[in-house]
Amino acid sequence: MINKSFVPFPTLETNRLLLRLVEDSDVEQLYEVLSDAEVAKFDYFHPLTSIEQALKFIARFKNELEENEEITWGIILKETNQLIGTCNMGSFDDGARRAEIGYDIAQSKWGKGYATEALGAVIEYGFTTMNLNRIEATITPGNDASVKVLKKLNFVHEGIVRERDLIKGKLEDGIMMSILKRDYEIIK
Ligand SMILES: CC(C)(COP(=O)(O)OP(=O)(O)OC[C@H]1O[C@@H](n2cnc3c(N)ncnc32)[C@H](O)[C@@H]1OP(=O)(O)O)[C@@H](O)C(=O)NCCC(=O)NCCS
């Protein structure tokens, strides 16, 4: 079984980042991240156009956490105490001990290794504390930066899943990538 005890909230820490619960007080920084068309480009949502929409995202994160459906961490840059993105783990399969990850970083912070650093902590949490066997991600073809992040984290490219995700009203193929606990144990 997967350990999904998210109370108290599992705050994670890396060299430069704190991964913590997203609070209502983060709304303006979250809006800045998710209102950017480049950030939303390969995702299911349209760029946000109001603070109210960002507040609804935060309410959804809390609701999904309470229902044990998905956990979303705010990615905080320790140096400035600023929220620079989010990452999440969900689509849990208790029997197969599987989960899927997602992530968004503010465009102004791209290319500094923050996604790789944050997801490294999430993956460690998934395999050690949650007892997962498989962590997967599906990436829309063309999202080369996302594929690069996962390759740096030793995810394996498994193939194309056809018309898997509804991205802004259009069914898109997904690049399926995963890491297994046994891969992780060899490399860590
Ligand atoms: C994907 C994303 C999270 C990466 O965040 P990041 O903090 O810039 O990632 P990192 O800095 O850890 O690593 C990015 C790597 O991709 C590389 N990269 C960036 N753009 C690239 C591109 N167009 N093609 C190939 N590689 C690219 C970077 O050079 C870096 O590799 P390096 O460390 O070897 O130089 C960020 O671009 C983002 O938020 N995109 C929009 C949301 C999104 O697509 N989320 C993922 C959904 S599956």
UniProtKB/TrEMBL annotation:
Keywords associated with the record: Transferase
Q: Name one GO molecular function term.
A: protein-N-terminal-alanine acetyltransferase activity
Keyword Translocase applies: no
Q: Where is the N-acetyltransferase domain?
A: 17-182
Q: Name one GO cellular component term.
A: cytoplasm
Q: Which residues form a coiled coil?
A: none
> Aminoacyl-tRNA synthetase: present as a keyword of the record?
no
Q: Which InterPro entries match?
A: Acyl_CoA_acyltransferase (IPR016181), GNAT_dom (IPR000182), N-acetyltransferase (IPR051531)
SUPFAM superfamilies per the UniProt record, alphabetical: Acyl-CoA N-acyltransferases (Nat)
Gene3D superfamilies xref list? 3.40.630.30
Report the protein name in the record: N-acetyltransferase
User: What species was this sequence derived from?
Assistant: Paenibacillus anaericanus
